Sequence to fold (268 residues):
Amino acid sequence: MNHDILMSRVARVVKDKGALKLIRRFLQSGTMVGGVVHRRSEGTPQGGPLSPLLSNILLDDLDKELERRGHSFCRYADDCNIYVRSRVSGERVMASITGFLARHLRLRVNAEKSVVGRPRDRTFLGYSVTHYRDLRLIVAGSSLVRLRRRLKVLFRQGRGRRLTTTIELLNPVLRGWFQYFRLAESPVVFKSLDAWVRRRLRCVLWRQWKRPQTRLTALMRHGLDQTRSHATGRTAVVVLGWSARRVGHKVGGPSLVSPPSWSLLYAR
Fold:
C-alpha cells in the first residue's frame, strides 16, 4: 500500500492537518526485528482497528470502478469477491482488475490467494454457499475446524475442574461464534456442533470419575439401572467411545450436561 496515494485519498475528506500528520506517523511507524528497528515505506501496521479503515478508504476507488462496470461484488477491507457468469469472464475480470489496482492504486494482488472458482468452492469471511441452484449461506468447513481446535484447548484446560466451570469457559466462545454465523442457513451444522460439545463434556465427566466404583455410583445416581451401570462402569471403555454410546447419551443427556448456564446452539 503506497503511503502517498493513501494519504491523498484520506485528505479528500479529512481536513485537519494534525490528524493527517498522526495518520502519516502511524503508517511510517517501524517494526523491530531481532532488536533492530526497520522503517516502513509501504503497507499498514496490522492488528489495529485503523488498518481495515484505511483499506476501505483506499479501495473506495475499486468499489466505484466495479459499480461503473456493473459487476456484482462483495468486499470487506482487502477481501473482495466478484461474481460473473462464467470462468472465462472471471479470468478476464481478474486480469482487468489486477491491472486497475496496479495502475491507479499501486497495489499488488496476492496471486496465491486470488483464484477464479465457483462460489461453493470459495470462502468469504468464514462463510460459503451451497452447491444447489437455490444458493444459501453456510458455515465454511475451515471455520468449523478452527472452532473445534480452539474448543479442544478449553476442554483440556477443564480437566480437574467442575463441569460448570468448563461450561463457563465454553459459553463466551460458542455464543460469539454463533452470533457471527447467525446468517448461515444450515441448522444441521449447529445441531451437530452441539452434539459434539456434549460428547466432549461427557468425556470430561468420565475422566473425573476415574475409578470403576466411582463411575458405577455416578451412573446409577444419574438414572441408569444397576445392570447397565455395572456393564459400563467396570469395563475399560475409551472415553470418547463411551460418550458416543447409547449409555453415554442416556446418562449425559440434558439433565447432566445442560445446567442453566448452558444453552443449545441451534435454539438461539
